[in-house]
Amino acid sequence: MKRSLLLSVLAFVFLFSSVIVSQGAGKGALTVTTYPVPGNVKVDGKDIGKAPVTIVLDEGGHEISFLDYSSQYTTPPVQKIIIKADDKIRITGMYTNRFVPREPPKSFFPADSLFVYGMKDRPRKDGTIYDYIDGGAIVYLRHGFRETTHAAYRRPGGSTLTLDIYDMGTPAGARAGFDDEEICPSGFGQSEIGAPCKTYHYEPDYFLYFHKSSYLVYVSTNNDSLKTSVETFAAIVSRNIK
Fold first, then answer.
1. What pTM was estimated for this model as a whole?
2. What are the pLDDT digits (tens) for 177-229?
3. Which of 100, 139, 152, 153 has its CA 20 to 30 A from that of 230?
4. Closest by alpha carbon to 72, among 208, 175, 167?
5. Burial code of 199-210, b = ≥16 C-beta within 10 A, e = fewer?
């Protein structure tokens, strides 16, 4: 009797252990990142937070979607995956900047990839606005600054063209930055680019600021003979901003 009882207990323990193992099996890990900005992620319609984020999922098919980030970026397409036991899958959602022209200015080529800077409490992939313009940051923060996108272009001979798109949070913030003489001093010219614009010529530099929607935009060159390139490029950026 004792032996039968012992065998019964052992059989129960084995069965119970098998149930535990089977409950723990059939799962895998998914890590989701987004680039170049930290977008919010959904898995199977459930919001799992801001990327980068890791979640354990049951074996089988799953659908990963992304939330809109801002009017400056297109949202990544939905991705579908199949998880198997003990998988460790990584995927990336690419947010594409719709304001930065796909083609560089005529006769220029991209000098680097796009840089994105945020605020002290919300840094972006390249740090904060202080990492970019340091002491000048406070003026933009005064008017609601959220994020800067920076693009640089070069051409043979050393001429450069720079594009900075400041997300100021609201149209009122963008206009306030445009009206602030610490950003856009007096003594400016004007150009027809499809948005309120101020131009400046400090030999050999030529640059302009314009505002549209919630964005304050800066375009410059270190070669004033290329002022037309600056204005043409600024007009394209202006058209891209809805």
1. 0.86
2. 999 999 999 999 999 999 999 999 999 999 999 999 999 999 999 999 999 99
3. 139
4. 167
5. beeeeeebbbbb
